Amino acid sequence: MKQGELTGIIGVNGIGKSTLLRTLAQVQPALAGTILLHNTPLERYTSKELASIVSIVLTETIPSKNLTVLELISLGRQPYTNWIGSLSTADKEKIEEAIEMVGLSDLQHKKCYELSDGQLQRVMIGRALAQDTELILLDEPTSHLDLYHKVQLLKLLHHVAHTTKKTILFTSHEIEIALQLCDQMLILNNLDNPFGSPETLISQKQFEKLFPTDTLRFDADTNSFKVS
Predict the structure, then answer these.
(1) Distance (Å, rounded) from C-alpha 45 to C-alpha 160?
(2) Tens of pLDDT, residues 134-172
(3) What's the CA gap between 171 and 185, in Å, rounded?
(4) Which helix (H) or strand (E) segment is 202 a member of?
(5) Mean pLDDT of 52-69
(6) What one-character-per-residue DSSP string does 81-119 give?
(7) What percent of the chain has pLDDT over 90?
(8) HEC sequence for 41-56
């Protein structure tokens, strides 16, 4: 993965997409092997060190929806605040930039329980942006959203990656949307787990192998799946 790129992890249910993402964020220990971050094994980083490099947006419900949008996004600055948690001018600038980038300036004083699922997901992305890490990980960020809001959210992630030069990695079942918006994709298949640009993976016929062909077939002309 490179700076300023949006990368999607796809694969069938149960293949290990969320497990991989959680392992990269050190939310759970690696099942095997070693993960290197800046050529250093992941486990050598302290929690505070890792929090300044990697932020993560999971699918779990947030602890309190009674917080305002501004308050929840401000929590992204926790790795940098002093022991009493007071925000500096620089912290407030990062928070303001994050709120603006996810398009929530008009809603920043609303309580999170007043928001739609799509708006709440943008708040969580805003918190990750306020954390100001070079790598942002998201687990199924479009779950529970309708088609319009799925596209809107992934377009936002594409814009954020390309504008801020942060690396964004997310898991998804939205393969056809990801094909149009991702710079790189990783297909988990328990075999060779191919990685590359959507164009490269299509030319290698990797998507034809993703599902049983007696049920679904991939149409390379339209970059979509058809019922067999």
Answers:
(1) 26
(2) 999 999 999 889 999 999 999 999 999 999 999 999 999
(3) 10
(4) helix 198-203
(5) 86
(6) S-TT----HHHHHHHHHHHHHTT-GGGTTSBGGGS-HHH
(7) 79
(8) EHHHCCHHHHHCCEEE
106: its two tokens: 């008009």
pLDDT score for 31: 87
The percentage of residues in the chain with a pLDDT greater than 70, rounded to a whole number, is: 98
Going by DSSP bridges, is the β-strand pair 224-227/216-219 parallel, antiparallel, or unpaired? antiparallel
Contacts 24+ apart (CB under 8 A), 112-119: 112/62, 112/64, 112/65, 112/66, 112/67, 112/68, 112/69, 112/72, 113/65, 113/66, 115/69, 117/144, 117/145, 117/149, 118/145, 118/149, 118/152, 118/153
One-letter amino acid identity for 114? E
Tell me which residue of 162, 164, 158 sits closest to 180, measured CA to CA: 158
Of 5-14, 153-162, 209-218, the least confident = 209-218
Residue 135's SS3 state is: strand
Q: Are strands 167-171 and 6-10 parallel, antiparallel or unpaired?
A: parallel
Query: What is the Cα–Cα distance from 179 to 201, expressed in whole angstroms?
Result: 10
Residue pLDDT, tens place only, 93-123: 999 999 999 999 999 999 999 999 999 999 9
Query: Rounded distance, CA 216 to CA 218, Å?
Result: 7
Token output for 29:
């220990």
CA distance 95 to 72: 10
* Axis crossing angle, helix 89-101 with helix 117-131, rounded to the nearest 10: 140
Indicate the length of the chain as a whole number: 228
